[in-house]
Amino acid sequence: MPAILYISCLLYRWVLALYPPALRSRFGQDMADVFEQQISEAWQRGQLRGVAGVWSRALEELVLVALPPRLNPALLRTCAISLLSTMAVFYFVLWGVTPPIHK
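Given the sequence above, the corresponding structure tokens read:
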């Protein structure tokens, strides 16, 4: 097994720790096995590009499935307000320093 595949499988097992405990205890080993199979097949087909594709799908699943139950709604609201406020301040500062365009 090439080092990139070994490291990918090891990292994925660490990523599984982010999944909810009930899901991880019931499906964690199966998820790791499927990931190993997918990463091996992807390496045979497309090497690094194939591995990147498998990781892309794994990270998408992480964001959509594993992280939402762990997020605190109050923290999420605070982050969203902070992001929107920062964008608004940036816009107005940029608008204030940009010279008007005359035709």
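Residues 3-71 form one domain. Try to locate this feature in the token string yourself.
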